Amino acid sequence: MAIKQFGKKGIFLTFISIAIIAAAILIFTPSDVNLKKDLSVVKTRVSNVNEYVLDLENVYLERTLQATGRRTIIALIKYMEAETIMTGTEVFFSDGVGDSLYFKDVFSQVLLDGTIGDTPQTLSEMTGNTYNDRLGEITTTAKNAFNIDTVYGISEIRVSQTGPWFVEVEADLSFNVSSETATWNKTATIKTEISVENFEDPYYIVKSLQDSGVKYINKITKSDTKFDEWDVDKVKDFITDGNYTHFENSNAPNFLMRFTNDISASPCCGIESLVNPNNPAITGKDVSYVDYKYWSATPTCPNPNLYTVNDITGSFPLFPNFKLDFDHVVLYNLLSDASLHCPP
User: Fold this and answer.
1) In sequence order, what are the residues at sequence separation of 6 or more whose Cβ sits closer than 8 angstroms to the Cβ of residue 28?
2) Cα-flanking dihedrals φ and ψ of residue 182, to 5°?
3) CA 247 to CA 292: how far, in whole Å?
4) Where on the phi/psi map is residue 98: left (φ > 0), alpha (ψ -120 to 50), or beta?
5) In which band, very low, low, confident or very high, does the pLDDT at 1 lie, cut at 50, 70 and 90?
6) Predicted structure pTM score
7) Whether residue 63 is found in the same domain as residue 187
8) Rounded CA separation 316/140 (Å)
9) Which of these three, 127, 162, 195, is where a domain ends?
10) CB-count burial class (<10 Å; 0-12, 13-18, 19+) for 148
């Protein structure tokens, strides 16, 4: 009898063991399922942050640099105008490294901080619109939308002329992106091209204010006329519209050089226009009316290199006093209508 009772106890203990194992399975199995779900969520979050990092590097940083680069150019032109009026002397930036108003350093300072000079002067056009301001907006948006932290470090800003109608702005920077799931540390050089079209020509503004006290506004617009299509009628339209053109191996300065009063040749990138004698800022001089020559040449007569063009100077639309140097008479295909000029 004792043997039978022991057998019953053994069976009872076996059932208890099975129950404990079953309970353990029930306890741990749901946990395993949740872990798989959590891993899927983590993978999705990491993927989303990675897409943000890619968009940041390939889209947002470049577009932001382009927008703030354009605004920086506008702010610098406005500064030159205001300072020329205030001081009564022409104000250009320096093209020499180390000068307090060295153009490329000034460009970087304005783009990043919105200030100019050793004793920083704030430019109103840049208030809330610097590169640092815009990067801060991206940081705030990413934090609010995705709980992502972004920290930037900018080591250098560069600006250069890459062609007649474009300047390039580059930013060397690093950025750290972190979330609750992952962290990215990256360095990059962000590049953007900015068209020079529709900017006011700073050379026209400063030189005209200094010369006559009247501002000559000439916005840069590319002419559709090709180098071998020039004639008298096209030149008349060119003067009236205030357009610009580029000649191969040009002797004209490029757009950025116009900020520094550097009128030397920029063979790859020089652009030029023709001064309109009918503009109120023009006083009428015995010089070539090619823009970079008009304000730099000393009137002399007789001048063996100065020509009038009959159908431009003396017929409708009338451009009195308009003259060109011999090289430009040839470039604009006006030789058959040109004659040496010397006032009586």
Assistant:
1) none
2) -165, 170
3) 14
4) left
5) very low
6) 0.86
7) yes
8) 60
9) 195
10) buried
